[in-house]
């Protein structure tokens, strides 16, 4: 565990590379699924959550039903073996 | 000795009677090939039985009777064959290879992949394109295409794009991409980019078969029917027409309603022609009326 005088690093994961990303845009009516990252220039990450999904379709189903709207980027995490 | 004599007698009878018996069968069945074939069958039977049983009193009548029976048998057999063929054609082939290929197409056309990757991967995995052929189709270098394929495969593995047929709701969303890809496969078969093979019917048929499979899986969707109708009309065009003008009438637009394929597809793959636009410019209406023929 990484520590400093006043704090300690908590939960974290290394994400797989940007080429593995899938983005779901929830603005407007029908969610749009596309290949790649959503961040360009001034866009920022507003939050993150870790989900368990068997495959990309399951992750997409969750992303498309996400209550927050906006854009959801799906990235697989690096699994340490 | 008796055999030789019988054969000689048979030769005389054949010379004498063949035309008469054939004519009688043509009159009865109205089919030249059938009559000739059955008379020959009857002669073979004569050569087998006459040396053994002796030549009958009226050999020509014997030949006529045998040939007529053969003809009736053949017609019955053909009838049964047609019935079986119709049964086979109408029974669903939702198992084995066909479905696997559809799964493969759906994985290749997953929305998590870029359109370029979808098309390239499907053509590679399903239609068996080489990297060189893909490069020519996309007007890109082979290195670019190879890289695109590698990236696409890596994404499938890393992101966990599944190899399965999704629910009908999802399938509908993926349909446009799949149809675009099927259309490109058909186009490649219909007007090949490969030298020395101006028309590879097998690829076109494969695309049509896959389109038919999609039609069966999504009977409520009109777009696959439209694409299938387009395939059917295009296949029936004389080859010279397609070679000199283009491969598709503008009716194809209704099958690529997203517009994505038309915009992103290189002109070398899809060539449009205003000369062959059907009168109403659409093929969806024709799809439903042609349904029973496809």
Could you please describe the fold and organization of this structure?
The complex is a heterodimer of chains A (81) and B (294). By secondary structure, chain A is of the alpha+beta class. Chain A has one domain (14-74). Chain A contains one helix and three strands. Chain A has one helix spanning 56-64; strands at 22-25, 32-35, 71-74. A three-stranded antiparallel β-sheet of chain A has the order 2-1-3, covered by helices on one side. In chain A, a hairpin with a 6-residue loop joins β1 and β2 (32-35). Chain A is globular, with a radius of gyration of 15 Å. The two termini of chain A are 18 Å apart. In chain A, 16% of the residues are buried. The model of chain A has no long low-confidence stretch (mean pLDDT 81). By secondary structure, chain B is mostly helical. Helices cover 68% and strands 0% of the residues of chain B. In chain B, α8 (168-190) runs antiparallel to α9 and α9 (201-217) packs antiparallel against α10 (223-235). Chain B is elongated. Mean pLDDT of chain B is 71; it is low at 94-98, 195-201 and 240-294. Chain A binds chain B through residues 16-17, 19-22, 33-36, 53-57, 59-60, 74, 76, and chain B through 110-114, 117, 151, 154-155, 158-162, 166, 170.
Structural class of chain B: mainly alpha
Percentage of residues in DSSP E strands of chain A: 5-15%
The total of helices of chain B stands at 13
Strand content of chain B: under 5%
Order of helices and strands of chain B: HHHHHHHHHHHHH
**What is the typical, i.e. mean, pLDDT of chain B?**
71
Low-confidence stretches of chain A: none
Total DSSP helices of chain A: 1
Strand order of the largest sheet of chain A: 2-1-3
How far the N terminus sits from the C terminus of chain B, by CA atoms, comes to: 60 Å
Q: Roughly how much helix do the residues of chain B carry, as a percent range?
A: 55-70%
Largest sheet of chain A, described in full? 3 strands, antiparallel
